[in-house]
Amino acid sequence: MLITVGSKNPNKIQAVREGFTLFPRFVHAEFQAFDARSGVSDQPMGLEEILTGARQRAEHAFSGCQVSAGLESGLIPVPRSRNGYMNVSACAIYDGATHYTGLGPAFELPRQIIDLVVGQGLELDEAIFRSGFSSNPRIGYSEGIIGMLTGGVISRKDYMVPAVTMALSGLIGAERL
Predict the structure, then answer these.
(1) What is the DSSP letter of 97?
(2) Which of 52, 68, 81, 172 fits as disulfide partner to 62, beta carbons 3.0 to 4.6 Å?
(3) pTM for this one?
């Protein structure tokens, strides 16, 4: 079975691989990455834009496979959160006809990063770099901000796996009905 991934980001590829292979039927699957555009802004804001990006990545990666997967992360407004926003990942799995969607856990970001993203329109990696939280200008390709905030306990890949498994629950559940 071939599963395609709508990204060349190693964290996204590994999250898809790990999420799928938790299920015995996908243990021997092969994975192929595509540089699939999300069609949304570099820093998605709001659940609608995040879900659109995940779906479009999955659609653009659907080529010669049984299913494809797209992951997109972004900020969503969350009432009663400390800074008004949380970072969340969404996964869309596409079988050529239907999308199955899952969300992962969400977490708060430091105020100065939120101010740069929301107030100045910066992409998250750039905001993290400019604020001095990291000297890595592409932290989303390494441990991610969640890796920094948790002292390496949770990586960006780890944070995205639940979105993949939640989307897979929709695919597997639909096949069982």
Answers:
(1) S
(2) 68
(3) 0.94
Per DSSP, helices labelled H in 73-155 are: 111-114, 120, 124-130, 144-149
Q: Please, what sign has the CA dihedral across residues 88, 39, 92, 66?
A: negative
Q: Six-digit token pair at 41? A: 């802004």
Residue with tokens 């992360």: 73
Q: Is 109 helix (H, G, I), strand (E, B) or coil?
A: coil
Q: How many CA atoms lie within 13 A of 7 on its CB side?
A: 25
Q: Which of 86, 95, 66, 57 is nearest to 146 (CA)?
A: 86
Instruction: Tell how strand 2-5 and strand 67-77 pair up.
Output: parallel
Angle at 160 between CA 155 and CA 164, to 5 degrees: 150
pLDDT tens series, the chain, 177 aa: 999 999 999 999 999 999 999 999 999 999 999 999 999 999 999 999 999 999 999 999 999 999 999 999 999 999 999 999 999 999 999 999 999 999 999 999 999 999 999 999 999 989 999 998 888 778 777 788 999 999 999 999 999 999 999 999 999 998 876
Percentages of the chain per state (helix, strand, coil), in multiples of 5? 45, 20, 35
- Token code pair at residue 137: 């200008």
